[in-house]
Design goal:
Length: 201
Amino acid sequence: MDLHLLLLFAVAFTAAVAVPGPNVAFAVAQALKHGLKTTLPGAFGFGLATAVHATVVLSGVGLLIHDNRWILTYLRWVGAIYLAYLAFSAFFAKSGSSNAEAENSSPKKMFVDSFLVSLTNPKGWLASLLTYPSFISPNVSYTTQAIALSLTAMVISLSIYGGYMFLAHKARAAFDNTSALNKITGVIYAVVALCLVLLPY
């Protein structure tokens, strides 16, 4: 793998992931509502989704998505509906239901939720379609480059989303009111759902 290209890819991919978007907002909302210990596996969910994005794009299947944008539209609506459901549940949750929510919000669920939200985010797919092919060198083994780029992207995703979750967890300490936390996370989920539907990608 050309180390110069790999470094440039790392910079470009970090910039793409670090810019606040639906995935970042979802990670922050989860950490605010459930705390770092429960939510941190969600970072691995984002990492796995990154691996799926890379596999699809680098295997050539990404060309199918590029030529059939309706697939992204379908994913966008699936993600928006799911996030709207989470927003409704959080916004109208009773303040005394925190124990029940804690039982239903296992690390496994955080992992699955983050994975699904990332897979239904068109921004992630488009960023992958635009980024990976640009850093492939014709002079080096394609398989080696694909593996190197995929692993680099996964590490970056884990670090960035884990970092956002950590910061949100620190901010969570400022809220003693469970009802207020539910309202805030509900609003964040709703905003993310609207972004998926309304913002062009």
